[in-house]
Amino acid sequence: MKKDRIIPATDKLPRYETYLLRCWQERSQQAEEFLVVWRFSLENPHTGQRRGFASLEALLASLQAELINDGV
């Protein structure tokens, strides 16, 4: 018979986060030129919270703040 392992309260389980990442292009015309920019959103499937980002840099900064700085 297999016994379940009991994890002491002092042992920390690894932290993980799950996100749904959406990426899409938006096109706009300024003067005679067409501009193409990428937009991003992250959704937490557990809470339904969704955040939008106007640039890749903003997306990465948000993830860094959440996972590295706040995750300690």
What would you say this structure looks like, in words?
The chain is an alpha+beta fold. The chain is 19% helix and 36% strand. The protein has one helix and three strands, in the order E-E-E-H. The chain has one helix at residues 56-69, and strands at 20-30, 33-43, 50-53. Strands 1-2-3 form a three-stranded antiparallel sheet. The longest helix is centred in the C-terminal third of the chain and has 14 residues, at 56-69.
Secondary-structure map with pairings?
Blueprint: E1 20-30, E2 33-43, E3 50-53, H1 56-69
Antiparallel strand pairs: 1-2, 2-3
Quick recap of the structure?
The chain has one helix spanning 56-69; strands spanning 20-30, 33-43, 50-53. By secondary structure, the protein is of the alpha+beta class.
Average of pLDDT: 85
**Sequence of secondary-structure elements:** EEEH
Low-confidence stretches: none
Gross morphology: elongated
Radius of gyration: 20 Å
Q: Which range best describes the helical content: under 10%, 10-25%, 25-40%, 40-55%, 55-70% or over 70%? A: 10-25%
Strand order of the largest sheet: 1-2-3
Structural class of the secondary elements? alpha+beta
Total beta-strand segments: 3
Please give the largest β-sheet.
Answer: 3 strands, antiparallel
User: Terminal Cα separation, in Å?
Assistant: 39 Å
List key phrases describing it:
72 residues; alpha+beta; 3 strands; 19% helix; elongated; three-stranded antiparallel sheet
